[in-house]
Every structure is written in structure tokens, then in C-alpha cells.
Amino acid sequence: MARSVLAGAVLTALALVGIAVLPTASAAPQEADQRAEQWSRPSGPLVIGHRGASGYRPEHTLASYELAVRMGADYFEPDLVSTKDGKLVTRHENEIGGTTDVADRPEFAARKTTKTIDGVALTGWFTEDFTLAELKTLRAEERIPQTRPRNTLYDGRYEIATFQEVVDLQRRLSKELRRDVGIYPETKHPTYFQDIGLALEPKLVEALNRNGLNRRDAKVFVQSFEVANLKTLNRSLRVPIVQLVNATGAPYDFTRAGDRRTYDDLVKPAGLEEVASYADGIGPSKDRIIPRDAAGFLLAPTSLVRDAHAVDLLVHPFTFRNENTFLPADFRSSTDPAAYGRAFDEYSAFFATGIDGLFSDNSDTAVEARAAVRG
User: Fold this and answer.
1) Which of 341, 334, 343 is nearest to 367 (CA)?
2) Which residues pair with 340 in a beta bridge?
């Protein structure tokens, strides 16, 4: 994809937080155009609602996505998996035993099974063994209740969302809030779904085309931890593509093909040059930008942001969270892993590296931290 995509897709994506006043029916076209420009004026690095506002609601629910946007997120992130009947739904994993009430549903007890996903044996219930109609009878639950017990208040309230429902939400919120809300879908386990005849990519491209979102100025990024599917998508999509880079390991499609390269190789200058041939950005684990020592304290920043920018790649690290258990030891407030620490200090450290955006479970905290950096 040409780097020129970024001019429309990024610079206009950084929307002002808050609700602007709509032009009246009698407003001149030029005045309306000026107001529309104001609503999408850049305001700093992107804030991406990681699985929505998953610090406050069960992740990957419409309620979580909506809350992230209302807290000021520029984009929200739906992870995509497939149902048995080939529908795209939003779950962090295709195994749903830990994020829904399926284990409490006797009618689905026989669906529990063990599968190998990306080389790892997992036991549970899997979206590809359920039709969409069956999944719609389930309800979402908090994934980490020991860390976020307050989120369990919302267990049982929300359905599993389809990707089309996500797009409909994006449109509704953009209209209501008078700013272009973005979506940042991730294809989960693409090789696995390809192998079982439920490839995610054609369905994603079809959905973006159907909704008029496969265009240069659409508020959409598409991401994956694998490489081959992003290269394929680059031939069909006009929206920016982001290569995710985990803290350790290798893209599963590399492993499957016998390619010995790892994520470490992808973030070397030569690897970044290759990534730039099919993608517009990287989404690295934040530890690749500012590593931690064995005790969890921050070390000096690496050259990754500078190296990525040298080949015109955006940098959107993951994941920023408020709880002590996720923070560097420098910024923990106590030994209670679920208590909030000094999250603003972590944001300040990472904004100082020149990142172009970040994924956060707590969009309100990220937005306020960004505002403080802008001064």
C-alpha cells in the first residue's frame, strides 16, 4: 500500500474529544465544511480502545466499544473470529470458555473439546463449533475477574457482537458525537481458520466493501500477528495495514512454513523494511519500545520507534492498563496487583519516545495523559 494512504487515514483520524455543535439547516456549505474540519482536527497520538474499554466492561462487547469512544478513544479494536456458519464475530480468542457463560449452559456441554490452535493444545468451547444463532444465546463475562472484580457486575448482560454490528455502532457514534470514530479490526489465528475452511480475510474484505469502508480516507486499520495474510490483504484493501509484533516468539505462519525468523527479526532494520513493503505501521508489544529489567523496572528506550519511522511505519504499541499488575515496577502504587498505579507516568514515558498511538484498556486515562503531554 502506498504511504500516501496515511495522509488521509491518520491525520484526519485524531478527533477532538467531546461533542461539537451541529450546523443548523440554514448554515452555509462553507461554514458546515469548516465545522466538519474542526471535528476531525488532529489532537496528538491516537488512542485506541483495546477490546473497547475493557478496563471497565467485559471486553469485545458493544458496551465496551461504545464506552471507549465516549471516553474519547479515536478508534476501538474488535478482534475477529469465525462462527460455524462463516460469520465474523468479536472475541479475543475463538476459545470462549473464559469470556462467556458457555460453561454454565448444559445444552452446550457436549461441545467442550480439545484443539490445537497455533501449535498449542487448548480445551474449551470454540466459536467455529457454534452457529451465529447459538452464539447469540450466550452472554459475555469478565475475562480477568480477580484483577477487575467490578467488571463482573456486567456479567450476563451483553451478547457476542458481529462485525456488522460493530460497523453499525461506529456509524451511530460518529453521527451522534460529530466526529469520525475509527475501527481497528484484528484477524485472529488466520492460518488456523484458513485450514478449517473458514478464512477470515475474504469475509473482512467483503464487509468493508459492503459498508463503504475500503477507501483511503476510511477510519479503519487492519492488523494481524501473522504476515502472509497481511500481504494478501494488502492486495485487496486501501486502508492502512499494521503488523503486530509480540514480545517473544514468531508469527505462526512463519513457524508453520519452516521459516526460522522471529518477531525479533521483524523489528531489525532489514525486517522493518520488509514490513514497510506491505504494511503502513507496526503494533509492537510496549516492552519492545521501553524494555524492563528482571525486576520489572524500565530500562532505556530502544531505537524501534526511530527505526520504524525511518521507513515510514507508524508505531502503535500495546497494551496500556491502569492496574499495578500490568505497570512497570517504577509506577506501582502498592503490592495489590488490582489497585491502580501511576499510569500517567507510564504514558508520559512512552509518549516521549515519539509513538504515533497506543492501545489502552482505559481510554479515559489515555486521553487525559495525551492532553497533558500536548499542554
Assistant:
1) 343
2) 323
